[in-house]
Give the backbone structure.
Amino acid sequence: MTQLESHNGYYLWKYVPSSAAGGIFATLFAIATIAHFYRLFSTRTWSCIPFAIGCIFELIGYAARTSAHNKTGELMPYIIQSVLLLVAPALFAASIYMTLGRIIRCVRGEKYSIIRVNWLTKIFVIGDVLSFVVQSGGAGFMVEGDNATTGQNIVVGGLFVQIIMFGLFVVTTTIFHLRMRRYPTTESYNVEAPWKSTLRMLYGVSVLIMIRSIFRVVEYVSGQNGYPLTHEWTVYIFDAVLMLLVTVAFYYWYPSKVIPAPPESGAYSLNTNSKYGEP
């Protein structure tokens, strides 16, 4: 039976990671990676590049967990899975944010956005990058026994940034959706652009990523000896399964047919004295 091994007197793992579970999800994310790169290049939807890279991160992360089964005392597999599985959803989020911008421009709904569309993607992606960098830095500290607590606190801060940005994103999306339903634009009737189903997909994947991020906050706040970090099943139920569902949903409702219209001259959003509701 495989036994836990220490690294310089410090136990990186609180359990022996399952090679079976890691192998299953590495395989599933390998399939997701191939599928998303195929969609990416066949449709040339370049805003989905971060999403495809996120799939690679998930694949490598679970492959590292698989290899760690017999290498619990080795630092590299632990670092790889810790960092990549932690930050992969931030890459998913980048494409999700850009998809909202595509939808708004596709239906000429710029005046219904509470954030100027030219800034919308930039604001959310910058917040996402900040979350990515903070979480990556925190994960780096966590692999050092003496700085594990500091690393956890930094990761929690990065996760809170991610949760706040997703909350703002959901609010922005919901308000835009409600205004579009009340005052639909001519372009919104274009049946060839499935913007409504794509928008519903954004709601769904956003909720899944928020649940996962909240779980990660609970995991790190609970500490090294807390229930989540000492019981492997929690990672698979509240992270692996949820992120796999995100990749499936995003693939099924791929935003390739939601094509942004050329910018309108004089288009402006509601936060700058727009003529909301006027024909």
